[in-house]
Every structure is written in structure tokens, then in C-alpha cells.
Write a structure and sequence with these properties.
The chain is an all-alpha fold and 501 residues long. It has 17 helices and 2 strands. The longest helix is centred in the N-terminal third of the chain and has 35 residues. The chain starts with 15 loop residues before the first helix and ends in a 10-residue tail after the last strand.
């Protein structure tokens, strides 16, 4: 492949090219984000149709998330090297083919395998969607573009239960996967028409850390398997071996990334205190965000007796708030810095999770669901855009793919581990998802745990995240890294923030 010099980021958001680029980026990432939530609504139906256990349903969610978390970093690096548009569109097509396979699944095993393949496609397209904006849209429009991307991509996550519920009730759970086909057609057409190619010119000589990607996947897979299967198998050899393999692979991954000349997860990124802090906060917030829909939509259907559509509509306030408010939250974060939004937003999320304790056998939507969804929606709207913008602002533009990949990997790993661990922690296993009494008891414990995760994220946002922001070129510079032929950016020494920030 001929390496071309990347053009400077100069596309105006108000231009036809800017709007077309944003359309492709939002719809592409929206497919992956929507799929991560729409499946939750279908879990009771999938369980009945395919005679699945709770562990099968957990793997239906986690097989996708595992591949996304394990390979999203590699997807970002491939995009930086071979072209962000090329990898983005490749991921869209891959994801769509796997979605069709999911729709035709006839057993839990086939569905889980197809979801695994689907997760790899998501790992290719997800970091590319945001990196396209970061590397192509001109700097003065970038904050607003990221805010719009965050809001609309977040809306696709929130609208998943609503859309999925309608498709399930009107047709079948299989249509939650088939719907990706027309969406992908629009993304590919918009991408080919309006999205310019961009790449990191310095990435041509770098090697890919395939071993690091494999070790990361094995580590997450082993730990997840142990957490999911422990309720059914106990301290069996399979669970103990999976735990050992997961922990040893995780240790080998850390060792590998610190020693190799071309790491998948560059250690120098974490020399930036801001980058590290924001990813720590991301872990706690997305752990909570992964668990809430997993438990809530099953609670509404199994315990409260809601249909799939009504269970999805229950989260509509969160959707509307993110649609209306995310761009403003992005602008606010750019103006005042991420610290306050990343404190107040998570605390509102914690309050919303506690309000969801009102959901039960005699749930009234107006008094038990609407207030909780509204409060949580305000909190999520407040922190999502600043979280995304600030993690990218902590690194130079030419490694936007890697930075986006790190952020996505942290978010997906957090969600996956939380979905794997919390059912075990609250005593759910087997086919408890179909038992109203057992599931209701576990649901209440899970909402308290989610409130705790949100609250910890908010406290860490206040304690660890810097109050104000600088432009990336003011906070970073390029240094030669020991043992690396190419120049790699590292954080510059920066003064401590004022005590009042």
C-alpha cells in the first residue's frame, strides 16, 4: 500500500463533507453501541426460544464485549497505519455480516459464536469513527463535533431497548440483528462519498503487537469465564484453570507491553495524569452503565410484567436527554474543564440507580421509572461528552486511534466484567432470569452496587481529574522513546492545577 501524507484536519463541520463525515461516524459507531444494549431487551425471549441458561445469556452479551474490549486497541492501530476510513468501513461490513449470522442462530452456541465474530467487527469500526472526527474536522469545530458524536452515539445506545422492544414484539428477536443491514448500507455510502482517508504517517514502520492483543483477550476471557460459570460449576477444575489462565495472561500482558518496542497499549500514554485519571473514572462509570440495562429490562419484563416494547420505552427519557443535551455538555466541558461534569454527572447517575429500587411487581411507570430514568439521564448526559473529549485532548491528534481504542477498551472491559461478576455477587444463576421472586431480589442488590460504582466514579472524577484543560499540543510533545525507532509522543511536564480548580 502506498503511504500518502495525511492532509491536515481542515473539514468544517458546517460543510457538506463535515455533515456527511459526521453522519457516517455517528451511524457506524451507533450500530455497535446500539447492539450492545438492544440485546438486553431480547434476553428473556432468546432464553425461551433457544432454551438458554443465565450463563448462556451472559455470554450472549459478553462474547461481543470481550472481542470489542480485546481488539479495539488493535483496530485503532490498524486504522492509524492503513487508513482510518478503510478500517472503519471494513469493520462496518464485517459487523453487518456477523449480525446476519446472529439473526439466523438456532442454538445458544451458534448465537454466542456469531456474537464473538460481531465483536471483532465492532473493534474495527468503533475507534475509527471517533478518530475520523479527531483527525479530519478542523480544530475550532472539533469540540462541537465530538459533542454531537457523543450525544447521537449515546442516543443509539439508549434507544436500543426501545427499538429492540418494538422489533421483538412486532416481529422477532432476530430482527434486532437484521436491522443493521440497512444502517450499514447508509454508512458505507456516506463513508465513500464524504469521508477523506487519513492515517498516521509515522505508523508505517511500526510492528503490530498481535501477541499483546491475544494475551489481553485470553486474560479477559479467562476471568470472564470463571465469573460466569462459577455459580453453576463452583470451584471446579474448569473454573480454577480459567481463573489461573486469566490472571497469568494478564500478568504476561503487562510484562509484554512494558518490554516490547511496539506495544498495543503504549505505556507512555499513562504518563499523562489526565489520561490515566479519565480512564480510571471511565472504568467505574461504564461498569455501572453496563449493568443497569442488563438487569433493568429483565426486571421490567420478568417481575413487573412489561412487554419488550414497554420495557424499552421506559428508558426513553434518558434517550431524549442525551439527544438534546450532549452537545451542550460537550461545550460546557470544553469551557470549564471536565472535572465538575465528571463529578456531578456520576453522582446524579448514582441517585438514579437508587431511585430504580422502586421498580418491582407493582411498578407504576410515572412514579417508579420516569423519575429514575430522568435523573440518570441527566447524569449520563452531563459526563459522556466531556469524558470522550478530554481523553482525546490528553494526546496528540496523530495517535487519536490509539487513544480512542484505549478509552473504548477500558469502557467495554468494565462493562463486561461487571455483567459477568454482578449476577454471581447477587446470587443469580441457572434460569433465575425467568423466576420473578429470585430475580427481583438479585436486581435490588445490583442497583445498590451500580449506585456505588457511579458514586466512586464521581469521587474519583473530583479527586483525580484536572479542573481545566489545555489544547493537546500544549500538554504533549514528541520524544524519542528508548528502543523505539519512530518518534512517539509523551506527556510534557505540566504544572499542578490551582487549588481552586
Amino acid at each position: 500500500m502506498t503511504m500518502s501524507v495525511p492532509r491536515p484536519a481542515s473539514v468544517a463541520l458546517s460543510s457538506a463533507a463535515g455533515r456527511g463525515l459526521l453522519l457516517a461516524a455517528v451511524l457506524g459507531s451507533g450500530m455497535a453501541f446500539l447492539d450492545s444494549t438492544v440485546v438486553n431487551v431480547a434476553l428473556p425471549h432468546i432464553g425461551r426460544d433457544l432454551n438458554a441458561t443465565l450463563a448462556d445469556l451472559q455470554w450472549t452479551v459478553n462474547a461481543y464485549t470481550l472481542m470489542l474490549a480485546a481488539f479495539v486497541l488493535l483496530g485503532g492501530a490498524l486504522g492509524d497505519r492503513y487508513g482510518r476510513r478503510t478500517l472503519f468501513l471494513t469493520g462496518v461490513v464485517w459487523f453487518t455480516v456477523a449480525s446476519v449470522l446472529c439473526g439466523f442462530a438456532v442454538s445458544p452456541g451458534m448465537l454466542i459464536a456469531s456474537r464473538t465474530v460481531q465483536g471483532i467487527g465492532a473493534a474495527l469500526l468503533t475507534p475509527g469513527s471517533l478518530a475520523l472526527i479527531q483527525s479530519t474536522v478542523r480544530s475550532e469545530d472539533r469540540g462541537r463535533a465530538i459533542g454531537v458524536w457523543s450525544g447521537l452515539s449515546g442516543v443509539s445506545t439508549a434507544v436500543g431497548p426501545f427499538l429492540g422492544g418494538w422489533l421483538i414484539d412486532a416481529f422477532s428477536w432476530r430482527w434486532i440483528f437484521f436491522i443493521n443491514v440497512p444502517l450499514a448500507a447508509v454508512v458505507v455510502a456516506a463513508g465513500l462519498r464524504w469521508v477523506p482517508e487519513s492515517r498516521d504517517a509515522e505508523a508505517a514502520g511500526r510492528r503490530f503487537d498481535v501477541l499483546g492483543a491475544v494475551l489481553g483477550a485470553v486474560s479477559l476471557g479467562g476471568i470472564t469465564y470463571a465469573l460466569v460459570e462459577a455459580p453453576n460449576l463452583g470451584a471446579s477444575p474448569a473454573v480454577l484453570v480459567a481463573s489461573a489462565v486469566g490472571l497469568l495472561s494478564g500478568s504476561a500482558f503487562v510484562f509484554r507491553e512494558r518490554r516490547t518496542a511496539a506495544p498495543m497499549l503504549p505505556p507512555w500514554l499513562f504518563k499523562s495524569r489526565q489520561f490515566t485519571a479519565i480512564n480510571v473514572v471511565t472504568f467505574f462509570l461504564y461498569a455501572a452503565l453496563g449493568v443497569v440495562p442488563f438487569f433493568l429490562v429483565v426486571e421490567l419484563q420478568t417481575v413487573a410484567g412489561y412487554s419488550a416494547l414497554v420495557a424499552g420505552v421506559a428508558l426513553l427519557p434518558l434517550t431524549v436527554l442525551m439527544l438534546v443535551g450532549s452537545s451542550y455538555a460537550g461545550a460546557l466541558g470544553s469551557k470549564i474543564g471536565p472535572r465538575l461534569p465528571l463529578t456531578v454527572g456520576p453522582l446524579l447517575g448514582a441517585a438514579g440507580a437508587l431511585l430504580l429500587l422502586a421498580v418491582g411487581p407493582d411498578t407504576n411507570y410515572l412514579t417508579d421509572v420516569l423519575p429514575a430514568a430522568t435523573v440518570m439521564g441527566l447524569g449520563v448526559t452531563l459526563f459522556v461528552a466531556p469524558l470522550t473529549a478530554s481523553v482525546l485532548a490528553a494526546v496528540p491528534d496523530h495517535v487519536a486511534g490509539i487513544a480512542s481504542g484505549v478509552s473504548n477498551a477500558v469502557a467495554r472491559a468494565a462493562s463486561m466484567l461487571a455483567v459477568a461478576a454482578l449476577p454471581l455477587a447477587v446470587g443469580l444463576s441457572g434460569k433465575a432470569y425467568a423466576d420473578p421472586t429470585a430475580f427481583d431480589r438479585g436486581y435490588r442488590l445490583a442497583m445498590v452496587a451500580c449506585a456505588g460504582l457511579f458514586a466512586v466514579g464521581g469521587v474519583l472524577g473530583w479527586v483525580l481529574v484536572r479542573g481545566g484543560g489545555r489544547r493537546p499540543d500544549a500538554e504533549t510533545r514528541v520524544r524519542a522513546q528508548p528502543g523505539v525507532g519512530a518518534q512517539a509522543p509523551a506527556p510534557a511536564d505540566v504544572p499542578e492545577p490551582p487549588a481552586s480548580s
